Amino acid sequence: MEDGDGDKTLRKIGEAFKEIASAVNSQTVDIEVAPFSHACSLVSPLFGCLGIAFKFAEMDYVAKVDDLAKASSSISTLSALLDHDIEGDCVRKSGSHSRNLLRVKRGLDMVRVLFEQMLASDESSLRNPASTAYAEVLAPHHGWAIRKAVAAGMYALPSKTQLLKRLNEDGECMNQPN
User: Fold this and answer.
1) 31-71, pLDDT tens digit by residue?
2) How far is Cα 66 from Cα 42, in angstroms, rounded to an integer?
3) Which of 163, 117, 159 has the alpha carbon at shortest distance from 136?
């Protein structure tokens, strides 16, 4: 860790999304696909650190982010990406950039709700925060078999401390008031 924050996954994610947020808040600049896909790629390790319960989500998320990153070589903004798929009448087709963007958004929402739940809880277990996040964000889009497999995997989640250690974080921000 040469620069103080060198391997701090959560800090890297925060910085990348601050840049995206400033573009969104400016309301004059469209979101570029390349920095967006880069920021999203930094979230991938979070899924891996959650263990087997989220292995499928991790693989799916990484594939969708990779597709967006590749698309950034020919499509510059998220609006242009959506317009391209609308014009091609492929918005709902499996593998389309817009559908992949939707899946990435759901992955980001899942992580957001997970961390909101972690911050709101004094529990060391991630089972309740992860179950709530999954139920709220991903479960409505999954069939019975996937929901049951994820529910079984919830028992193999790391503790909050183990997760933060895997992310090379010290947890100092996890118990701070909002």
Assistant:
1) 999 999 999 999 998 888 888 778 888 899 999 999 999 99
2) 12
3) 117
Alpha-carbon distance of 134 to 114, in angstroms, equals: 8
Give the separation between CA 10 and CA 16, rounded to whole angstroms: 10
Distance CA 98, CA 83 (A): 9
Q: What distance in Å separates the CA atoms of residue 63 and residue 41, rounded to the nearest whole number?
A: 10
**Cα–Cα distance measured from residue 17 to residue 85, given in angstroms and rounded to the nearest whole number:** 25
Please identify which residue in the block is written with the tokens 């930094």: 42
- How does pLDDT run across 87-107, given as a tens digit for each residue? 999 999 999 999 999 999 999
Q: Structure tokens of 43?
A: 């979230």
pTM: predicted TM-score of the whole model, two decimal places: 0.85
